[in-house]
Amino acid sequence: MFKFKRSTALLVTILMLGIIVAGCAGGGNQTEEGVPNEQGENFKVGIVLSSGGKGDKSFNDSAIRGLERAKKEFDIEYKYIEPKEVSAAEKGLRFLAQNGYDLVIGVGFMQKDAVDKVSKEFKDTKFALIDDVVKRDNVASLTFKEHEGSFLAGALSALLTTHEEVKGINNEEVVGFLGGMNMPLIHKFELGYTSGVEYINKQEGTNVKVKIAYAGTSPSAFNNPAKGKEIALSQYDNGADIIYHASGGTGGGLFKAAAKTGNYAIGVDSDQDWVQPGFVLTSMLKQVDNAVYQTVKAVKNDNFQAGVQEFGLEEEGVGLTPLTGVGPTVKSAQKLGDITKEDVEDIKKMKNRIPEDIKERIMDIRKKIISGEIEVPNYLKQSQE
Asked: What residue intervals traverse the membrane (predicted)?
């Protein structure tokens, strides 16, 4: 969950626009954690971020985007806390619950135990946990069908890598996957991606291979761009021309590697197409912002629902950024001066290199996943069987 230096201006303004996620901007009073407290009138939402904190251009920023949207529409007050260590998340959750926040959100599977413990102590407070499940009457567990979006990324990679006439594509028919922490949730991304590749191999009679590597076995593996670059360069050197990552800030190193070699990357969680213009083919969006917004809205409207809520392609909880043209995030980056008009043109030219029949094929595969004609394997469910 790498803080990209070039994005300072964008980070502040996108919050106001509600276009791409970012940290909690604005004045406000400083809390005990040294974090601005966004001022509203009555309804209060608190969120404890995961490793990497605000400005990661990924998971945390997406959650904050949802709060910004809710703030704009419902005049809520929100506060974020950035624990320096995973073990400090419990303290942050308890602080928010003790101070009367109507909804307390924990970001990431690593806060499961903390949310479980604190929600048990504060039964009158509503909680939400992103990316894992806590079975309590006052906890909404917000989960995503990352495997579905990753399948699309895999299918796109497998189709495009066979087109060596496309700039940046070699004749090896090899693609890559870069994971952050080697653990079940990230295996869910990996299996979705490799399944997409295998689907195309079966449909087209191709033999595209996938190189797989993880940055580590601890939470720090999500915030190690140097390691990400090292792994990506190795995969590119060994034949890969497209690498999909599910590694948080570690992916920042992947983007730099792609620019160095002239190959391609696929972003994750948020729209990362603009981060390295002309080298990020698309991004697998994980719409944490939508899930957070919907949860805040439900609590605000006295319609809170505890239990597991899944967001997939059908619910627009996951998906790919545009394969033609650019999305609102890229346009905002240009408007704010974080990227130039030439950068935007580079992104458009890159996407124009993707053959139209491939774009149509991806849309067709998406429809088939939603209809159930294509069933994408879910690593987490398979591992429980």
From this structure: none
